[in-house]
Amino acid sequence: MAEQSLTSRIGIDGGGTNCRFALVLDGTRYDLRRGGANASTDMAGTIATLRDGLSSLAQEAGVSIENLSSIPAHIGLAGVMDAAMGAEIAAQLPLRCVRVEDDRRTAMSGALGHSDGCVLGIGTGSFIGRRAAGVERVIGGWGLVLGDVASGAYLGRGLLSRILESADGLFPPSDLTQQVLAEIGSTAAIVSFAAQAAPADFARFAPRIIEAAHGGDPNARALVIDSAQQIAQRLRHLGWEAGEKIVPIGGLAPAYAPFLPPEMAENIGTPEGTSLDGALTLAATVTAT
């Protein structure tokens, strides 16, 4: 991404795996990382992580936390479901000029920079977004229970379902389904595993599914092609047009490129920057409330 403006600001990219903090102060950028945070599953832990990170950021810059209080800040945070939740978190932070939102817009801002285009945010979870003429729209990101189409968790859960359906005779088994069934032990063990599994537990199967799909495994290909079709359908729903760039972010998104329609695959681009860069960019738009 182009070098950030020297205006003082704070950006935070808060994900379930880790939180990244950045402070631009007097032309110098300070960065640090802390543990993961998710506002929906652990509000108290999330606030503690944010407060600890901000305190450490102040120490890194050699200033007091009070010196940070008036600096504009944008926080893109996993698990923030609406503006009320964002305001609740903001009220418990030592910042007066802060906006707290979910992490999708932060990711889009980093990936696209100041240009238009579409973003495929696909890792353990998923979302798809588009910016056209400066107007942004984002869909997905609702979690595995109700959404996260094409995500790593979605693929992994789909594989386990496919194994059970194969046991019912609906689909022929394949090398991948037989290998995973043997590893887990039985169909009953699959049901027991799934009842307790978190999205990340399902997602650990995703790299193997992608690899097997490239190798021609029919069940893996069926899962990946179905997800790619759903990605394409959502891109069209958002208004994607031929020639418009599509930027994959997240660990799994680039793997879908060969399975997308050719007119989409040929427009796959690279991110302009990171989600943390996006948070810093958005911080420049925050005003005191």
Automatic annotation (TrEMBL):
Pfam families: BcrAD_BadFG. It comes from the Bacteria. InterPro entries: ATPase_BadF (IPR002731), Euk-type_GlcNAc_Kinase (IPR052519). Residues 10-253 form the ATPase BadF/BadG/BcrA/BcrD type domain. This is ATPase. It comes from Gymnodinialimonas ceratoperidinii.
